[in-house]
Inverse folding.
């Protein structure tokens, strides 16, 4: 009884801010303006414009997830193996940006990548041509990687640093060279961290509209932008909700895939 | 002295300015059960890690079959380690754990399968191929760790307190198992423990270490019966260690009482340490022995009684199958052969005697 009454505020909170909004979205997504049931809003994803945005989103999120993984894994390994990592200071450096406003961090990239921005100025100083990265998909990937990299590093670092040194020593002892030790022992043992890192980067990348708005200059539409426009520019809450539901489907699928590997050890946040 | 298989030459190791091993010299023969014995922190694990290749000595060389392997990485060494906390691969089942080393060295499938069967039989765990390490008890995991190491047919097996986490009964069983395995495999076991009983039970040779120095090397009988200094005497088994004066050859004075002994060559009136094992102290009727005393404590230990007798103002530890109740007046006598005379260390430094083999 005691426990039940304690959980009451949370239940109310969950109902008010999670369940009810979700029901609203489902209601809007599955009805038309007159309030009758329809699948049209879901099917709206099939239009050329929407499906292009969805596939671009999937592609860019996948790409930035892969880049994050490639950057984060060696880093996490080095950090967990070195005194630097053990002192916690370097880890702190990586967490620090997460405390800064997300918009601010993304805006910083606008300044850096803008035509005649910091990057171009430096390139021109060396007599090179400007790169014109801003307003391209590349800029968006830059932003995603920069914003979400810590979410990849932390869970991997967390798992890798908990691997018993003697397990690694045992692999070496049994004849494995450093590379064999890495892919036969360290990597499999770090999978839970990798999987939660992937979800923690992939899901926010897939749904973002801020990064694409700021770094894509409004020219590149991701599925997040499309949904945002449907709601904010007043086009249609129904289609916006329908698209949200489709997107949710993709997220749920990726969560289910990852929960198969994740045994909860990789969660740090 | 047989075939030197592996040799440590002038090994020193410093951690954070603290000399953990100091000019250690030691060799290990083929097909022997050798134990490194010493109190916690004396450098046993460090010695083993240097042998296994997980640690580089700051000075000195590791020689294996006449070859200098000091800077060879662990995967290139013909020895395998059984780690203190098993260190099994938790993401693999038992068969995969055991096959790990064999797969890396590229052995054939049938060879690997045969080896797994053989190893599991050797450690008495047939049929455990498909189990996961987490589902095994501590003792079973330890045996898998041994199986995983021995399938690679190392010339030397290094074991770091492998039985430390087991309960007494299982530990005793495993001690016999290990001796059996060693005899069956015909390889050298280098075993680390701080448990003197374990060392005495299992070893062909015991190396007693303290503070990075070797105190004594010998058979279990040597170490027990002829400890070279008070540290060894105190560390191996219970003993009475008294200050004494060697009056002349074969005569020692303890607390003003004259005891005959068999040691010679200490000169005249020389202060020494006298070691008497509690089972060597014989009790009798008052007046019948060398000195009289009163029983002050009595404990039943199963095989024998353990008593403390106050004589010459000193507690004497006595073990006997005959019980003398507290308060009883007794006499103490000791067979001259059972009195060990040892030189007193002249300084703190000398307490850790450096012994070259
Ligand atoms: N990596 C290390 N860094 C700093 N000091 C260390 C390190 N490893 C061991 N030492 C120190 O070296 C000394 C010997 O350690 P070692 O592990 O060899 O002892 P041991 O004889 O195995 O003890 P135990 O019976 O407790 O396992 C200890 O004082 C220990 O604190
Ligand atoms: Mg140790």
């Amino acid at each position: 009884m005691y426990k039940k009454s304690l959980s009451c505020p949370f239940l109310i909170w969950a109902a008010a801010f999670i369940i009810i909004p979700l029901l609203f979205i489902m209601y809007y997504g599955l009805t038309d303006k007159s309030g009758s049931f329809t699948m049209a809003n879901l099917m709206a994803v099939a239009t050329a414009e929407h499906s292009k945005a969805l596939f671009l989103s999937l592609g860019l999120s996948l790409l930035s997830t892969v880049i994050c993984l490639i950057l984060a894994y060696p880093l996490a390994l080095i950090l967990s193996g070195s005194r630097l990592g053990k002192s916690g200071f370097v880890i702190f450096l990586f967490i620090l940006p997460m405390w800064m406003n997300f918009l601010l961090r993304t805006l910083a990239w606008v300044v850096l990548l803008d035509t005649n921005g910091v990057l171009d100025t430096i390139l021109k100083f060396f007599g090179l041509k400007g790169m014109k990265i801003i307003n391209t998909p590349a800029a968006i990937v830059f932003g995603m990687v920069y914003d979400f990299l810590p979410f990849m590093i932390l869970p991997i670092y967390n798992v890798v640093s908990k691997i018993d040194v003697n397990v690694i020593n045992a692999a070496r002892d049994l004849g494995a060279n450093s590379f064999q030790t890495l892919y036969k022992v360290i990597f499999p043992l770090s999978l839970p961290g990798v999987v939660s890192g992937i979800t923690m980067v992939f899901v926010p990348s897939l749904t973002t509209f801020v990064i694409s708005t700021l770094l894509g200059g409004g020219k590149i539409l991701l599925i997040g932008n499309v949904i945002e426009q449907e709601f904010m520019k007043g086009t249609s809450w129904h289609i916006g909700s329908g698209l949200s539901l489709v997107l949710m489907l993709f997220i749920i699928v990726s969560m289910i895939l990852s929960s198969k590997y994740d045994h909860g050890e990789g969660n740090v946040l | 002295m047989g075939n030197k298989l592996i040799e440590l030459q002038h090994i020193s190791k410093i951690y954070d300015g603290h000399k953990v091993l100091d000019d250690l010299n030691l060799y290990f023969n083929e097909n022997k059960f050798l134990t490194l014995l010493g109190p916690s922190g004396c450098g046993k694990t460090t010695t083993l890690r240097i042998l296994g290749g997980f640690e580089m000595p700051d000075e000195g060389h590791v020689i294996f079959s006449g070859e200098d392997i000091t800077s060879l990485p662990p995967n290139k060494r013909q020895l395998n380690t059984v780690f203190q906390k098993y260190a099994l691969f938790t993401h693999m089942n038992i068969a995969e754990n055991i096959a790990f080393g064999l797969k890396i060295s590229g052995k054939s499938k049938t060879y690997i399968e045969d080896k797994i069967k053989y190893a599991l039989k050797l450690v008495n765990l047939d049929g455990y191929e498909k189990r996961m390490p987490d589902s095994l008890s501590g003792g079973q995991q330890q045996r898998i760790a041994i199986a995983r190491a021995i399938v690679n047919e190392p010339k030397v097996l290094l074991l770091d307190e492998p039985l430390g986490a087991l309960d007494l009964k299982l530990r005793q069983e495993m001690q016999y198992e290990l001796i059996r395995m060693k005899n069956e495999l015909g390889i050298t076991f280098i075993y680390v423990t701080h448990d003197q009983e374990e060392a005495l039970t299992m070893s062909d040779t015991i190396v007693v270490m303290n503070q990075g120095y070797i105190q004594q090397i010998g058979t279990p009988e040597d170490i027990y019966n002829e400890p070279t200094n008070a540290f060894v005497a105190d560390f191996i088994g219970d003993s009475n260690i008294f200050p004494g004066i060697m009056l002349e050859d074969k005569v020692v004075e303890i607390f003003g009482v004259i005891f005959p002994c068999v040691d010679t060559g200490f000169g005249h009136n020389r202060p020494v340490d006298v070691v008497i094992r509690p089972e060597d102290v014989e009790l009798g009727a008052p007046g019948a022995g060398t000195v009289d005393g009163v029983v002050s404590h009595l404990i039943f230990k199963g095989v024998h009684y353990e008593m403390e007798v106050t004589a010459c103002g000193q507690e004497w530890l006595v073990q006997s199958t005959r019980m003398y109740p507290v308060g009883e007046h007794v006499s103490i006598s000791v067979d001259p052969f059972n009195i060990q005379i040892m030189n007193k260390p002249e300084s703190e430094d000398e307490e850790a005697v450096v012994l070259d083999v």
Chain B is about 25% helix and 35% strand.
